[in-house]
Amino acid sequence: MAVTDWTAFLDQTDRRMGELRSGMPGVAKGFHEVAKAAIGAGTLDSKTKELIALAIGIAARCDGCLAYHAKAAAKYGATREEVIEAIGVAVYMGGGPSMIYGAEALAAFDALA
């Protein structure tokens, strides 16, 4: 699927995730705590961690991951150039499919930054 409106896609995904979270509140709360702990600043800052998550989203071909982590990378101050370098690492690790999803990740970052 090629997302053309990343903001609308994120809104739709937020609604769907809200429905899912309400159906499994314990699991959702646990996942939220894992995410908070994983992205929180430590030895690596939150921006670097979001760039890593974006690269993994590219390699995993996860549109929702691209949207959420592109938006978060922008929130933590990532630049377009940093996103492009992260995409380069994902392409190195994931080959052609990561090149395609890297282009999608850049479109998501541009639309949501």
From TrEMBL:
The species this protein was found in: Stappia indica
What SUPFAM superfamilies does its record include?
A: AhpD-like (SSF69118)
Keywords of this entry: Oxidoreductase, Peroxidase
One annotated GO molecular function is: peroxiredoxin activity
Which segments constitute the Carboxymuconolactone decarboxylase-like domain? Answer: 25-107
Mind telling me what this protein is named? Alkylhydroperoxidase AhpD family core domain-containing protein
**Does the record bear Oxidoreductase in its keywords?**
yes
| Tree of life domain | Bacteria
